[in-house]
Amino acid sequence: MNKEEAVWSENMRRAQKGDAHAYRELLEAARALITVYASRALARMGIEDRASAEDLVQETLLALHDKRHTYDPAQPFMPWLIAIARYKVIDFGRRKSRDRKAIEFSLIEETLASPVFIEPGTDRDLAALLGTLPERSRRAVTALKLEGLSVAETAAREGASESAIKVTVHRALKALRKAVRKEGSR
Amino acid sequence: MKSTRLLEKLTEDLHPVSQPRDLRAVAPAVAVFGAASAVALVAALFHFRGDLDVVSRELWFVANLVALAAAAGFASYCGLVSALPGRPAPYPALAGLQLSLFAFFMTLIPSLSHMPLADAMRAGANPAGVACCGLVLTLSLIPGALLYFLVTKLAPTEPRRTAWMVGLAMSGVGALGTGLHCPVMNPFHVALYHGLPIFLIAAIAAATGRRLLRW
Predict the structure, then answer these.
(1) pLDDT > 80? residue A135
(2) Nearest CA in chain B to A17
(3) pLDDT at A115
(4) A23 vs B215: CB contact, 8 Å cut-off?
(5) Which of residues 84-103 of B touch A (CB under 8 A)?
(6) Which of A172, A19, A186, A43 is nearest to A101 (CA)?
(7) Residue B108 pLDDT > 90, yes or no?
């Protein structure tokens, strides 16, 4: 075991006992390593955007945190971390390829929740999805989620009660979720 | 950088965790499991079939059940080890064990040489044996659920392989139980209706493992 590996393993051992300082030091070092690993792995898959690499680093760090009890202190730390990173890279790549044609529902919700930010290309898919809704629902979702109007303002514009608008939007989002899942399973 | 905030959150959320027990400690338990199964099945044979002659004549059957017990125990051990990141499970040994099981089934065919092959197949491969397949599946559900629960508590980084081993272990236990219960001693029956479901269940587990063991 080299010196760096010994330091990592020792920090992880201490982190398992609740030492926050050692854990922070370990996470910093792990982040640097995973960033390089993830960038290279994604480049091999033909994905070269920094946001994806950053997402992957975060997913791996979360997995490291959640599964830290599975690290055996008698074993070196690096293979443990790389095995997790590798799994996350494979999972990420698989998800990416599956989602190329479909928008994830979370993205729709995020997009709908944000009146200002729509990723390039997403607006076309979004318009197509909204097109599957009945006219009244589409108007309510557009007003409330895309134009940023309040429930009261939307209700006044549509000539309906506030609770009716809430129900309509809730049902519309449910229908969108179903449509996205159907699209994703094709 | 977004992950800086994440690091702070993770550090704040840190609490002591218990370290995993070394799974090598499970190995003696597996050995005991195998030995206990062997004793149990010999006892069962004496009890249900009455005479020593049956046991000595049907030695292949006893060997089959012992091999199943060992394979199921070893596969569950491998499944658990493979769910610990960075710890290679003893796959070559497992593969050897599987191959020897196959080889064992192959040796059954010459043992039928005293009987015309068609007669033996007719006697062994009768449709009633489908009930044995169902029994293998039924008996494998509880050990399967237990192993699945244990594995999800760990971190399987090769879910398909882990699921394959969980499938082998659960169906091995199922086949062992079926062997102790089923009165048919025809090797074709055992190979077809007790042996084949092992690999079918393992294959189904492997096919669904990637989804089921995602974390």
Answers:
(1) yes
(2) B16
(3) 45
(4) no
(5) 84-87
(6) A186
(7) no
Is the model's pTM score more than 0.95? no
Residues in chain B with CB shorter than 8 Å from the CB of A65 are 10, 13
Cα A153 to Cα A109, A134, A140, A162, distances in angstroms: 21, 20, 10, 9
Show residues of chain A in contact with B6, CB under 8 Å: 58, 61-62
B7 and A69 within 8 Å at the Cβ level: the answer is no
Pair A5, A77: CB distance under 8 Å? yes
pLDDT over 70 percentage in chain B: 64
Q: Does the CB of B2 have a partner CB in chain A at under 8 Å?
A: yes
Whether the predicted pLDDT of A117 surpasses 50: no
Confidence tier at A118 by pLDDT (50, 70, 90) = very low
Q: Residue A76 pLDDT more than 60?
A: yes
Dihedral (C-alpha) A36, A39, A42, A44: value to the nearest 10 degrees? Answer: -70
Which pLDDT score, from 0 to 100, does residue A180 have?
73
From residue A13, give the alpha-carbon distance in Å to each of A17, A59, B34: 7, 22, 35
- Per DSSP, the residues of B30-85 read HHHHHHHHHHHHHHHHHHHH--HHHHHHTHHHHHHHHHHHHHHHHHHHHHHHHTST
Quick check: B73 and B35 in contact, CB under 8 A? Answer: no
Length of chain A: 186
- How close, in Å, is residue B204 to chain A by CA atoms? 20
